[in-house]
């Protein structure tokens, strides 16, 4: 893995990358994750085993990444992370990528598929969703009503029902998508996964549940499932 910095109009983004063969993988970690997170380390090891190209960015506020709209130490929103994700796609992803997203990173993944479907080959979502108990709390934590809308583009909106995110029909384009949830997850309800599946345009959607796994999905069985899905989209 090599470490690099991407300077963009919005700021500076720290990246870890590796070259290889096959469809490139883009890993979007969850909120609060750095390069040393167990999930990120596991995915880097998977890609090394299979000589798979990988792009692993750090969001602003982590590993030195910065955003021009957010003062040092200031509070930013998910839309800032998403704007930097688009800059990574524009500069580092000349061909469609397999996107793996964990937790909040999986919601960024889904919005990327909405906004840039031609840049996405397949989607793998791990504990996709937010650990919030109501729409007002979600707005307070993750931004205003322009939820990842970014100016004139259609925002990704949702409601909350019994602790799960609910999306409008056909919110997500017809791409192969695999979703993974743990039934011991106390942050994100696995029912969010069924709601995502119902909101996809295409039929190639699979949901995998692990009764004993928690939000991290870092147990051996969950990681084995993830590696098999990554390889299936070679």
Could you characterize what this model shows?
The protein is α/β, with parallel strands linked by helices and 234 residues long. The protein has one domain: Rossmann fold (3-Layer(aba) Sandwich), CATH 3.40.50.1820. It is built from six helices and eleven strands. Strands 1, 2, 3, 4, 5, 6, 7, 10 and 11 form a nine-stranded mixed sheet that branches. The protein has a two-stranded antiparallel sheet with strand order 8-9. A hairpin with a 2-residue loop joins β8 and β9. The longest helix is centred in the middle third of the chain and has 15 residues. It is globular and about 40 Å long.
Summarize the topology.
Elements (H helix, E strand, L loop, with lengths): L1 E7 L2 E8 L6 E4 L9 H12 L4 E4 L8 E2 L10 H15 L4 E6 L1 H12 L4 E7 L8 H8 L16 E3 L2 E3 L10 E6 L8 H8 L6 E6 L9 H13 L2
Parallel strand pairs: 3-4, 3-6, 6-7, 7-10, 10-11
Antiparallel strand pairs: 1-2, 2-4, 2-5, 8-9
**Average pLDDT value?**
83
The largest β sheet comes out as: 9 strands, mixed
**What is the C-level CATH assignment?**
Alpha Beta
Terminal residue distance: 19 Å
Strand and helix order: EEEHEEHEHEHEEEHEH
According to CATH, the fold-level topology is: Rossmann fold
Number of folding domains? 1
Shape: globular
Measured by DSSP, the beta-strand proportion falls in 15-25%
